[in-house]
Fold:
Amino acid sequence: MNEQKLEKQRQNLVERGVLSPDEKLYGSSTINYTEKLVGRIETWNQGGVAIFTDQQVILSKGFSCEYIHIPYQCIKEVGKCNQGFFPIGMVITYENRESGEIVTEKISLGKRKKWLQILSEKTGL
Structure:
């Protein structure tokens, strides 16, 4: 994405209250995500977005207007996973700041290597 489009997207996210005005936007990607059913059984669902900034990863799942803000300092582990047979998934394990609970999110997205590199650099993992 070129710088002009990236800045326009950043301004839009700041106006909507998703980003703070001092955050730098690295980019975003549409995602598929897992939803737990029973125990370890989960299903992949379509429709969501992952937003990568210099301070955090922001996930939006489905058609919800709710965002999951994951600061890099809260991330405990990042890794790769598969969506079915396709090696396009990413696993992010983090500590929820409000509850103190350890949460694992599985998403699949394009350019996984690029986003994993950003996460690794920002988290030090």
Remarks:
- The radius of gyration is 14 Å.
- The longest helix spans residues 3-15.
- The mean pLDDT is 87.
- The chain has two helices and seven strands.
